[in-house]
Amino acid sequence: MSAAKLRLGVLVSGRGTNLQAILDGCSDGRIPAEVAVVVSNRPGVPALDRARRHGVPALTVSHASYGKWPLCRAAYERDLVRALTEYGVGLVVCAGYDRLAGETLIEAFRGRMINIHPSLLPSFPGLHAQADALAYGAKVTGATVFFVDESLDGGPIIVQEAVPVEEGDTVESLAARILVVEHRLLPRAITLIAQGRTVLEGRRVRILDRSGGASQCVGQ
Length: 220
Ligand code: GRF
Hints:
Layout: E1 6-12, H1 17-27, E2 33-40, H2 46-53, E3 58-60, H3 73-86, E4 91-94, H4 103-108, E5 113-117, H5 129-136, E6 140-147, E7 157-164, H6 171-194, E8 198-201, E9 204-207, H7 210-213
Parallel strand pairs: 1-2, 1-4, 2-3, 4-5
Antiparallel strand pairs: 5-6, 6-7, 8-9
Helix pairs in contact: 1-6
The structure holds 5-O-phosphono-beta-D-ribofuranosylamine (GRF).
The site of 5-O-phosphono-beta-D-ribofuranosylamine (GRF) has 12 residues, from α1, β5 and α6.
């Protein structure tokens, strides 16, 4: 009998192209995991349709219905954690999720929650990474996948890839080129975790080669 696949809970807020890359990778076997549930904090977004088209449960837990943000964060996250737990989620993947995770969510999934960010962290954290890189005049930016902790985009880095900034780039053209990279980087990070090949040592993530992977625990 083969081992049970890692069950992913994907958090989304909008378009969902990163979610699509995960759904496709899980369906065609490139990612050795399965999407157990997709949860959006915003109702009616395209990401929810992408999940349903793949036959994956798609829920909305609307942060806005809990009251004023961030005061309502703990109550909202308690319900989010309950939903993720009900679906047996082993790894939470923030894929274009637009809320800063709070204590309730982080404590429930410490070392088992990752996020993708459109810059080479620690440069340009926050919501406007591509615009900030352009405004700064950076010649190189990129994408980063990291374990979520209490900091703003400052958790231990799992994988990153550089993207050159080109003459005449706009925020849109730069974001589009970074997005292409995101769509392979996030599946790669999930695959490494699913294969047990990431070991968290302080704030460094050691990546094991294939031979060393089998006996290691994820994010320990
Ligand atoms: C991506 O650029 C991601 O890095 C950022 O928000 C965007 C989400 O895009 N956090 P999508 O919803 O996955 O298409």
